[in-house]
Amino acid sequence: MILVLIDGTGVFDDATYRSDFQNGFLKRLERNFTGHGEVRYWRGPITFDIDSAGIRDEVVAFLMSGRGTGPAHQVVIAGYSRGAAIAISVANFLHHQNLYPPAFDVNGSFDIPLLLLFDAVNRSSTLEETEYIPPTVQKCFHAKRDPRVTSRWYFGNCASNPADSIDYRERHFFCTHAGMGGCPWTGDHPERSVVDPSSVHTPRGRGDSGFTYLPHLAPIITEEEDTHNSEKIALWMNQQIATTSLAAHNLILDIAAIR
Prior knowledge:
Elements: E1 2-6, H1 14-21, H2 25-33, E2 38-42, H3 52-64, E3 75-80, H4 82-96, E4 114-118, E5 132-133, E6 139-145, E7 161-162, E8 167-173, H5 177-180, E9 191-195, E10 201-203, E11 211-213, E12 215-219, H6 223-241
Parallel strand pairs: 1-2, 1-3, 3-4, 4-6, 5-7, 6-8
Antiparallel strand pairs: 9-12, 10-11
């Protein structure tokens, strides 16, 4: 089996990026899978996205290169954030271009047995078709952030239109976008405005004996909650993977890394 991993958006410097994402979900998949098949990891795009389509093209070229050919080989693709959008674009590109990597060129068919998505978002102007998941994908498990957290609310989500034939499962988690990738509390810290009766109060205006209370910002989610709920994502993904035949390949997320 070939495991293709495409991580989320980060800084330009590769050394800093490696440090930032070293305990992310995709790096944990890479560590656990090593020795059980071929694995290829791509770092995600830089913050000011100019390379998403380029990463997509690199992944396609890798799959078309003939690496890992043979009837026993399968390709599993996993992506986080913008990397998840790239993963979807890879599947669509191969599907619509009728490109069949040698590992799959059996009876003229091309299938991706499993697509793992961690809070897929498309904030790239260079990627096509990140809403539709093509029928060449057999199973897709998508962990998405709960919109009530308001973490990166302007990102939205993609992967909204899976083909009818796909075994598609999604679940929302009360988690920041960073926590969705296995790196809790390293991104934004959502807050909300709260009116607290015990706060300092001021007169409403001349001749008005009433008072108004000054609002303050309160956290919507704490670091402890973000870490705990990020662990729930790993548990849920492991449970879904366990229902497939791919569990035997040690395709599993390390839970201890985020406790």
